[in-house]
Amino acid sequence: MTVINGYEQSDREQKLAILNLPSLEAAAKKIIPTGGFGYISGGSEDEWTLKQNTAAFNHVQIVPRALTDMEKPSTQTQVFGIDLKTPIMMAPAAAQGLAHARGEAATAEGMAQVGALMAQSTYSSTSIADTAAAGKGAPQFFQLYMSKDWDFNQSLLDEAVKAGAKAIILTVDATVDGYREADIINNFQFPIPMANLTKFSEGDGKGKGIMEIYAAAAQKISPADVRRITEYTNLPVIVKGIQSPEDALLAIGAGAQGIYVSNHGGRQLNGGPASFDVLHAIAQAVSGRVPIIFDSGVRRGSHVFKALANGADLVALARPVIYGLALGGAQGVASVISHLNEELLVDMQLAGTKTIEDVKHAKLLRKQEQR
Questions:
Q1: N or C of the chain: less Cβ packing under 10 Å?
Q2: Which tens digit of pLDDT belongs to each residue from 223-257?
Q3: If DSSP codes are grouped into helix, strand and coil, which group holds residue 164?
């Protein structure tokens, strides 16, 4: 263990023997301090939406296919002109130093090892440059929480462009903090600094709760902000936190080159629908005009398959990867993605889908079709 400001950080580095991703949470809880674990694992209010995120995958079933004369399916894909070994990516998630001393640098290293896309958060423990360097040229996206201070936004965007970010993810569903009871119970304040918050009025985040940090972020975000960031960076802007077809179309109309369907892992509006339950309608509205990223509740290869078959181009997750980070550092991260890929490959074979493009056209049986 490494200790910083009295907070114990894992410094493990090892491959993990994983039975399944849900089992990682209990193992990680034993080594991540209570406040940090509550921040990572918790949702808002009574966590109804958080729970529904995973349960919703049972609302459709994969139709098995036989006699397809195929074997050895491949998870390779291409999105935004980027060749990837898997459609599974790391969702942007704050403060990964709560799980491991190397934080996002180790996550980036692990994702690069398995040819998966890494997205880093504005509120990361590791700087944009250091996270990019750890990936050694592997593709990364940068996620922006817009500040009220445009100079601060420009500084972050400049650093992301300099570091070689392939796209900017603009999060739009966190203009205020969801009511996260675990943080209140634990009186949680970040014990370690957030490397990207050191230049301007936000400070470095240390000693603050997430509600205080969000208070410095923009409470008003409009389509004009999408256009402004696109023009400033000349990079694709992906709008994250889309949960309705109407907002997807607004974002595309403002110049967004990607839609990110997410309810923030059940951490924002409790009582809203599961992310998976809104994906199909959003994908129909987008109608292939731009790629779609999906997250919230993904724990199985079958969840990845269903999300792809329901309209997603990339499928992201965070909590299980962070648990793998705590348990095994970069190698633990790689182990998590490798295991999920293994489950996905089994599902692809049994559904008669040789490529990710085949998965996108696979038939799903919806509950209403069974009546």
A1: C
A2: 999 999 999 999 999 999 999 999 999 999 999 99
A3: coil
Q: Within a 10 A sphere around the Cβ of 155, how many other Cβ atoms?
A: 15
Burial class (CB in 10 A: 0-12, 13-18, 19+), 188: buried
**pTM above threshold 0.70:** yes
Collect all residues with Cβ–Cβ distance below 8 Å to 365 and sequence separation of at least 6. Answer: 60, 61, 62, 63
Torsional sign, CA 354, 360, 361, 365: positive
Tokens representing 186? 């634990």
What are the C-alpha distances in Å from 331 to residues 32, 126, 162, 299, 325? 17, 18, 27, 19, 8
The residues, any chain, with a CB within 8 Å of residue 191's CB and separated by 6 or more, are: 4, 5, 6, 7, 35, 36, 98, 206, 207
Contact 41, 19 (CB under 8 A): no
Q: At what angle do helices 275-286 and 48-55 cross, to 10 degrees?
A: 70
Active-site amino acid positions? 264
